[in-house]
Design brief:
The complex is a heterodimer of chains A (about 80) and B (about 150). Chain A is an alpha+beta fold and about 80 residues long. Chain A has a single domain, classed as Roll (Ubiquitin-like (UB roll)), CATH 3.10.20. Chain A contains 3 helices and 5 strands; from the N terminus they run E-H-E-H-H-E-E-E. Chain A is globular, with a radius of gyration of 12 Å. The N and C termini of chain A lie far apart (about 30 Å). Chain B is an alpha+beta fold and about 150 residues long. Chain B has 4 helices and 8 strands. The longest helix of chain B is centred in the C-terminal third of the chain and has 18 residues, at about 100-120. The chains are: A alpha+beta (about 80), B alpha+beta (about 150).
Chain lengths: ~80, ~150
C-alpha cells in the first residue's frame, strides 16, 4: 500500500510517501511495524495523540482495519482556514 | 456549489460578486475571508500551506454538502489556497447564500469550523529571524465542532 506523510511527520521521516508491504491488520499494527524500522519513524510516531490518520482519504481511528485499504496517510492535526 | 483548491491568489471582490449574482432568490449573502496574520511585531516573513491533494477536495466537498443539507442554502462556495503567502494575503474564503440571513451566517460559521480542523491543510510560519515552525492546532478549534 501507499503510505503518505504530511507536515512535520513528512519532515521527521524525511520522505513524502513510500510503498509499504505489510501484513498489519490495523493502523496501530502498521505504526508499530514502521516505528520498529528506524529511529526517525519511532520519533514521528512517539505520540499518537498528536497524529491523525486517513485511510483512502477519510479520517479514521488508529484501531481501524487496513483490509482493502490502498492509501494510508499520517499527519498532525489540521490547521486550515 | 463551488469548491476550489488552488495555489493562485483569488479576487475576493469578483468571487463575491459572481457568487451573489448566481444565487437566484437569495435574500442574504454572507462571505468570510481568512488573511495571513503577522506574528508578533512584524516578525513573520512568509507562511506556507501544505495540503493533501485529493483528500482536500474530498473533505471540502463533504463539509459543504453537509452544510447544504443542514441549512436552507441557495448556494455555497469555498476557495482555499496552498503554497507560499505573505502577511495580508488572502488564504481562503467561504460564501453562503440563503433566503434569510440566519441560515447564511450559521452555515458560514459551520463551514469555517469544519474546514479548520477537518480539511487537510497545514500552515508553516517562516520568521524573519530565520526560524520556522508548524502552526499548532488549538483545542478551541476542536471544541468548536461540538456545538454543531
Amino acid at each position: 500500500m501507499d503510505v503518505l506523510y504530511f507536515a512535520w511527520v513528512r519532515e521527521r521521516i524525511g520522505i513524502p510517501r513510500e510503498q509499504v508491504e505489510t501484513e498489519a491488520a490495523t493502523v496501530a499494527e502498521l505504526v508499530a511495524e514502521l516505528s520498529a524500522r528506524e529511529d526517525r519513524y519511532a520519533a514521528a510516531f512517539a505520540d499518537l495523540s498528536a497524529l491523525r490518520v486517513a485511510l483512502d482519504q477519510d479520517l479514521m481511528d488508529f484501531d481501524a482495519s487496513l483490509a482493502g485499504v490502498r492509501e494510508v496517510a499520517f499527519f498532525p492535526p489540521m490547521t486550515g482556514g | 456549489m463551488k469548491i476550489a483548491v488552488q495555489q493562485a491568489p483569488f479576487d475576493f471582490g469578483a468571487e463575491a460578486e459572481a457568487f451573489s449574482a448566481g444565487a437566484t432568490g437569495a435574500g442574504a449573502v454572507v462571505t468570510f475571508t481568512g488573511v495571513v496574520r503577522d506574528a508578533e511585531e512584524g516578525s513573520l516573513s512568509a507562511m506556507e500551506i501544505e495540503h493533501y491533494p485529493g483528500m482536500t477536495e474530498r473533505a471540502l466537498t463533504k463539509i459543504t454538502e453537509e452544510a447544504m443539507r443542514r441549512w436552507s442554502l441557495a448556494d455555497a462556495l469555498v476557495i482555499h489556497r496552498y503554497g507560499r503567502m505573505e502577511t495580508g494575503d488572502q488564504i481562503m474564503m467561504v460564501a453562503t447564500a440563503s433566503r434569510h440571513r440566519k441560515d447564511a451566517f450559521e452555515a458560514a460559521e459551520y463551514l469555517m469550523d469544519y474546514l479548520k480542523s477537518r480539511a487537510p491543510f497545514w500552515k508553516k510560519e517562516f520568521l524573519k529571524n530565520g526560524n520556522s515552525d508548524w502552526v499548532e492546532a488549538k483545542d478551541a478549534d476542536e471544541d468548536a465542532l461540538t456545538r454543531w
